[in-house]
């Protein structure tokens, strides 16, 4: 069979195969306008879809910002539990120094403990640990101090700190342990 006869036979057997889809070149705006005209000219489905898309984008941005904030906070306070566990060591060094004050026989021992405490405290401070103020006569602040009792001290105003029982500490501005204090109350 010749090529022309093959073409004619193919055309007779499949007339629908001859109709190839026409390509239309439209811009994005023309396609949107055509879609609005043909699909749903009276409704606002497209606007609702755009609103949903914008809300989803806003939610995604909010999640990204929250995760970044949480990650930064996690980095900032990652050592909090370790530092909190080391505070009793610092307390015991303070107690050893307090009890050894004035003992001439322990002078070299006291010097060694003071040096150890200073190095230990300097190391903790490099990691963001700071002591909470709780001096005698200072103002009592329930956000920084824990009142463990009342005392009667001459020369100290009512409601102020009469004595610090245990030092408090903060980590990079966040209270790690409140200072335990006795609050002054003059007898009435």
UniProtKB/TrEMBL annotation:
The keyword Cytoplasm applies. One of its GO terms (cellular component) is cytoplasm. GO terms for molecular function: adenyl-nucleotide exchange factor activity; protein homodimerization activity; protein-folding chaperone binding; unfolded protein binding. Keywords: Chaperone, Cytoplasm, Stress response. Pfam families: GrpE. The keyword Repeat does not apply. Residues 1-24 are annotated as: Disordered. Residues 1-10 have a biased composition (Basic and acidic residues). Its main location: cytoplasm. GO terms for biological process: protein folding. It is found in: Cytoplasm. Coiled coil: none annotated. Residues 11-23 have a biased composition (Low complexity). Belongs to the GrpE family. Homodimer. Participates actively in the response to hyperosmotic and heat shock by preventing the aggregation of stress-denatured proteins, in association with DnaK and GrpE. It is the nucleotide exchange factor for DnaK and may function as a thermosensor. Unfolded proteins bind initially to DnaJ; upon interaction with the DnaJ-bound protein, DnaK hydrolyzes its bound ATP, resulting in the formation of a stable complex. GrpE releases ADP from DnaK; ATP binding to DnaK triggers the release of the substrate protein, thus completing the reaction cycle. This is Protein GrpE. It comes from Paucidesulfovibrio gracilis DSM 16080. The lineage of its organism: Bacteria, Pseudomonadati, Thermodesulfobacteriota, Desulfovibrionia, Desulfovibrionales.
């Amino acid at each position: 069979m010749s090529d022309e006869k093959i073409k004619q036979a193919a055309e007779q057997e499949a007339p629908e195969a001859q109709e190839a889809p026409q390509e239309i070149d439209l811009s994005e705006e023309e396609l949107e306008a055509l879609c609005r005209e043909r699909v749903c000219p009276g409704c606002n489905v497209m606007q609702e879809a755009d609103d949903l898309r914008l809300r989803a984008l806003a939610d995604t941005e909010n999640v990204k910002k929250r995760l970044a904030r949480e990650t930064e906070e996690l980095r900032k306070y990652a050592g909090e539990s370790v530092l909190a566990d080391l505070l009793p060591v610092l307390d015991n060094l303070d107690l050893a120094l307090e009890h050894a004050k004035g003992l001439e026989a322990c002078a070299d021992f006291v010097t060694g403990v003071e040096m150890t405490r200073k190095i230990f405290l300097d190391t903790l401070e490099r990691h963001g640990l700071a002591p909470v103020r709780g001096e005698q006569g200072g103002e009592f602040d329930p956000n920084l101090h824990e009142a463990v009792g009342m005392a009667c001290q001459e020369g100290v105003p009512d409601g102020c700190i009469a004595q610090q029982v245990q030092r408090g500490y903060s980590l990079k501005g966040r209270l790690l342990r409140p200072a335990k204090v006795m609050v002054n109350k003059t007898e009435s």
